[in-house]
């Protein structure tokens, strides 16, 4: 069964638009660099329903094994480590 890996992001005060854009570009490059990733969507929240979270990422992976390999992949570690410095993250994974 495929896995939906969803990440909500709330950038910290003082993180400027250029730095946010750099994070988003790095996230977009996950697709094609990490095996098992079927698709990736990323965007800015446009409603007031997300408790201050400003951006969302949805990565569709082949299965739970692909998710298990995704987390420690060197590119993911690099991108996630940088992102955690500048944003609060909320993550949800589910099969469908």
Supply database-style keywords.
96 residues, alpha+beta, globular
Strand order in space, largest sheet: 2-3-1-4
What is the domain tally?
1
Number of helices: 3
CATH names the topology as Alpha-Beta Plaits
Separation of the first and last Cα atoms = 6 Å
Helix content: 25-40%
Largest sheet geometry: 4 strands, antiparallel
Radius of gyration (CA) equals 13 Å
Average pLDDT, all residues: 98
Count of extended strands: 4
Residues in β-strands, percent: 25-35%
Per CATH, the class reads Alpha Beta
Low-pLDDT residue spans: none
Provide the CATH architecture.
2-Layer Sandwich
**H/E element string?**
EHEEHHE
Structural class: alpha+beta
Query: What sort of overall outline do the alpha carbons produce when their principal axes are compared?
Result: globular
